[in-house]
Amino acid sequence: MFSLCCLVQIKDDWPGYNLDLFTYPEHYHDDIENVYIPHGVIMDRIERLARYVTEDFEDSKIMVLCVLKGGYKFCADLVEFIKVLGRSSNRYLETRVEFIRLKSYLNDQSTEDLHIIGSSDLSFLHGKAIVDTGKTMKALLKHVETFEPKMVKVAGLLVKRLPTMTESLTDYVGFEIPNRFVVGYALDYNEYFRDLNHICVISKTGKMKYKI
């Protein structure tokens, strides 16, 4: 588990960047308040996480379990950086990627129910070392453990600071952020905003426009 010094913490009063400083799909102009984490910063941080993973699993084979849909960009970029690091060193980490799709949000609220969409049979995990790249961890980890993997580590681009948070289930954390609903970089609000490269804060207008 990461120590505090290894986290990139975004303070509660961080206002984000003015939209005029970045490019983004123009049809979202009134739907987002600011650019919270620019794409370049995201990529730099993921490269560092890939280095942590490579150091922890040297000379091993790992199964990367990607949680769709919100985790697909993070997963793809993390695996690509792991490959790049391997090609430029003598520690190549062989990776295999599998996918699982979860749904736990309605509008901007996380629900108590975790729905595994598609096959819930994860028997291919038996005896494997796993890096899980997703955000809805507690219920998923409980499900994964029933298939007796050799080891499980969790990688998450974002971890929210919550008053009720007693421990982090994430071993590799990109950014610790306040409890704000963010979109972009494959994170959605009712399937919108996945096409944003930056992570942004959705506006009240955006919530109303795309609410179901």
TrEMBL record:
<dbReference type="InterPro" id="IPR029057">
    <property type="entry name" value="PRTase-like"/>
</dbReference>
<keyword id="KW-0479">Metal-binding</keyword>
<dbReference type="InterPro" id="IPR005904">
    <property type="entry name" value="Hxn_phspho_trans"/>
</dbReference>
<dbReference type="GO" id="GO:0032263">
    <property type="term" value="P:GMP salvage"/>
</dbReference>
<keyword id="KW-0660">Purine salvage</keyword>
<protein>
    <recommendedName>
        <fullName>Hypoxanthine phosphoribosyltransferase</fullName>
        <ecNumber>2.4.2.8</ecNumber>
    </recommendedName>
</protein>
<dbReference type="GO" id="GO:0000166">
    <property type="term" value="F:nucleotide binding"/>
</dbReference>
<keyword id="KW-0963">Cytoplasm</keyword>
<dbReference type="GO" id="GO:0046100">
    <property type="term" value="P:hypoxanthine metabolic process"/>
</dbReference>
<dbReference type="GO" id="GO:0000287">
    <property type="term" value="F:magnesium ion binding"/>
</dbReference>
<dbReference type="InterPro" id="IPR000836">
    <property type="entry name" value="PRTase_dom"/>
</dbReference>
<keyword id="KW-0328">Glycosyltransferase</keyword>
<keyword id="KW-0547">Nucleotide-binding</keyword>
<dbReference type="GO" id="GO:0006166">
    <property type="term" value="P:purine ribonucleoside salvage"/>
</dbReference>
<keyword id="KW-0808">Transferase</keyword>
<dbReference type="InterPro" id="IPR050408">
    <property type="entry name" value="HGPRT"/>
</dbReference>
<comment type="pathway">
    <text>Purine metabolism; IMP biosynthesis via salvage pathway; IMP from hypoxanthine: step 1/1.</text>
</comment>
<dbReference type="Pfam" id="PF00156">
    <property type="entry name" value="Pribosyltran"/>
</dbReference>
<dbReference type="GO" id="GO:0004422">
    <property type="term" value="F:hypoxanthine phosphoribosyltransferase activity"/>
</dbReference>
<dbReference type="GO" id="GO:0032264">
    <property type="term" value="P:IMP salvage"/>
</dbReference>
<dbReference type="GO" id="GO:0005829">
    <property type="term" value="C:cytosol"/>
</dbReference>
<keyword id="KW-0460">Magnesium</keyword>
<dbReference type="GO" id="GO:0006178">
    <property type="term" value="P:guanine salvage"/>
</dbReference>
<comment type="similarity">
    <text>Belongs to the purine/pyrimidine phosphoribosyltransferase family.</text>
</comment>
<feature type="domain" description="Phosphoribosyltransferase">
    <location>
        <begin position="42"/>
        <end position="189"/>
    </location>
</feature>
